[in-house]
């Protein structure tokens, strides 16, 4: 079941436990300047570590582990995800935003500011 939000023109696709937010069809879906293979590999390694941490948290729940231990692991995943977001943001600013400004699109700055606010 797909729900569309008029204000932002985004689609929210409910899944078993997490909603995935899709960008509107008018948004570019690929970078003009591709990431290097090394950068992609490093990002994938970070994601895989976070997935491993999340699986560990799931196992902790299944094993009825102490809440404090679970919360400590949650904090670690949140920190890792925040760092991952900052890496993606830096790449976005250094490539996508710079390219758009060089092409005369200053509206990209509004998007960049909104993304920074979302990342906190």
Model description:
Helices cover 62% and strands 10% of the residues. α2 (67-102) runs antiparallel to α3. The chain has helices at 37-62, 67-102, 108-119, and strands at residues 3-5, 10-14, 19-22. Strands 1-2-3 form a three-stranded antiparallel sheet, with no helix packed on it. The longest helix is centred in the last third of the chain and has 36 residues, at 67-102. With 120 residues, the protein is mainly α. The chain is elongated. A hairpin with a 4-residue loop joins β2 (10-14) and β3 (19-22).
Helix content: 55-70%
Uncertain runs: 1-16
Strand order of the largest sheet: 1-2-3
How many separate helices? 3
List the helices and strands and how they pair.
Blueprint lengths: L2 E3 L4 E5 L4 E4 L14 H26 L4 H36 L5 H12 L1
Antiparallel strand pairs: 1-2, 2-3
Helix pairs in contact: 1-2, 2-3
Task: Pick out its properties.
about 120 residues; mainly alpha; three-stranded antiparallel beta sheet; 3 helices; 3 strands; about 60% helix; elongated
Give the gist of this structure.
The chain has 120 residues and is mostly helical. The protein is 62% helix and 10% strand.
């Amino acid at each position: 079941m797909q729900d569309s939000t008029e204000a932002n023109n985004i689609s929210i696709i409910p899944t078993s436990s997490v909603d995935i937010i899709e960008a509107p069809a008018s948004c570019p879906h690929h970078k003009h300047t591709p990431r290097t293979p090394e950068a992609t590999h490093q990002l994938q390694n970070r994601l895989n570590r976070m997935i491993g941490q999340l699986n560990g948290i799931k196992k902790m729940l299944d094993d009825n582990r102490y809440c404090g231990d679970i919360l400590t692991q949650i904090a670690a995943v949140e920190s890792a995800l925040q760092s991952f977001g900052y890496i993606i943001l830096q790449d976005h600013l250094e490539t996508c935003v710079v390219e758009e400004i060089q092409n005369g699109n200053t509206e990209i700055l509004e998007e960049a500011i909104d993304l920074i606010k979302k990342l906190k």
